[in-house]
Amino acid sequence: MAKTALDLYHKYFRDRQFERLDMFQMINDRFNIQRVLYPGSFVHITPSFIFSDVVYVDNDKQANLFFSKPEVYPFIAQNKVYTQEAHVKFHFSDYRNGFDEVEDHFDLLISQYAGFVGQFCKQYLKNGGLLLANNSHGDAGIAAIDDDYQLIAVFHLRKGKYSISISNLDAYFEPKSSSQITKEYLTKLQKGIGYKKTASVYLFQKIQ
Ligand SMILES: C[S@@+](CC[C@H](N)C(=O)[O-])C[C@H]1O[C@@H](n2cnc3c(N)ncnc32)[C@H](O)[C@@H]1O
User: Fold this and answer.
1) Across residues 164-182, what is the average pLDDT?
2) Which residues, listed in sequence order, are joined to residue 189 by a DSSP beta bridge?
């Protein structure tokens, strides 16, 4: 492990300019987000700088150790942009096996480079809640063909900054190849397929 818990956060996120703070801020500016769930978070605590109530889930030992360190919490308090106290919870769990959180409870589910979070953790998301997913492992591609989700916005990353777009959403997730794409196929593939038009991150709404 890095020298202190916070060194780990700096090493992986701040030093690499990979915090994605502006993306979380844009979501907070546009939607009423109270509770956030982040399975496969590792030590990416940036959502807690923007959202006051975040539950993190990871089965990595380093992540478990990180969240047990007291210095993490004043760091969040120093970086947060809201006035209320930060509520931060961590489950040391494999998210595929479930964890002790209430179903239909969260307003935002974050899926970033950590497998099929949008599928395995869907039950924790409220109806009308949002799934923020990239397609690194194919999670966004599965959400795009899942009747429970509807694409409502995309984020493009240019020169280190995210921008949000809601235009021409029908053009995303059109496969480059003409073969029939199913959930089963994408689950097995675990890395997403090529699409004619892509974004860096996708925002879906749970509609049923
Ligand atoms: C590449 S890291 C991504 C970290 C963070 N989401 C980000 O965007 O920087 C993937 C993380 O997902 C976690 N992960 C993958 N599958 C998991 C599972 N089934 N249950 C819990 N955590 C998982 C790994 O332990 C790892 O910490």
Assistant:
1) 92
2) none
pLDDT of residue 2: 57
Which pLDDT tens digit goes with each residue over 78-128?
Answer: 999 999 999 999 999 999 999 999 999 999 999 999 999 999 999 999 999
> Is 115 near ligand 1, meaning CB less than 6 Å away?
yes
> Nearest residue CA, atom 18 of ligand 1?
94
Structure tokens at 51: 């959202």
Q: Kindly give the residue spans of alpha helices, DSSP state H, lying in 2-60.
A: 5-9, 21-30, 47-50
- The answer to whether the CB of 113 falls within 8 A of the CB of 44 is no
Nearest CA to ligand 1 atom 24: 40
The correct CATH number of 5-206 out of 3.30.390.30, 3.40.50.150, 3.40.50.2300, 3.40.50.720 is: 3.40.50.150
CB 111 within 8 A of CB 132: yes
pLDDT of residue 180: 79
In this prediction the pTM is 0.97
Q: What are the extents of the domains in the chain?
A: 5-206
Q: Is 22 in the pocket of ligand 1 (CB under 6 A)?
A: no
